[in-house]
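**User:** My hope is that you can spare some time for a protein that puzzles me. As I understand it, each token names a local backbone shape. I would be glad if you read both lines and explained how they fit together. The protein I mean follows directly.
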Amino acid sequence: MSVHEHSHRHTGFHFPSLRRTGTSTTTGDAVTTTAVAVRSYALAGLRLLTGFVFLWAFLDKTFGFGYATPSGRGWIDGGSPTKGFLSGVAAGPMESTFHDWAGAGWADWLFMLGLLGVGLALVCGIALRLAAVAGTAMMALMWVAEWPPAKHLSDGSVSMSTNPFVDYHVIYAVVLIALAAAGAGVTWGLGKAWARMPFVSRNTWLR
């Protein structure tokens, strides 16, 4: 009996290779680099826009540009940046406390310095961690002042609250924390130079 050796035939089916070719690796690196760049630019844009929100609030309340603050009633004209808002608080557990704070010199200075400091930090891309802490504290106090959970104000009228928990103050606070956590001050900012300064490198909470 003779044994016939069958020739090996190559079919059209092949298992996919687990090895990455040089081309696919290069393409993957390029995609990753592009994604990182897009994320950096997006965060930088968000940082600048948020910084402008704080800076504009400071400038309008200081000089009375006629938007939220009427002309001639700015801080430099003797107006109080906190009196109108805090005296109008009409709900929440700190209603009477905010009424006592309204128009106080220390409250005006703290509020305005907070707006200026957070705004400059975001625009320049420096001290984002400190800005996140200060800005979140400001947003928390303003959230309590407006007290979104209330369906009715202290006089019984409808509060017109659209959400009992999440409002723009919460969004701003989350944005501030996210920008600080992501180190968003490097792109379109002075974050890298700021981090190299000796007193900042020794105190990382200033980054």
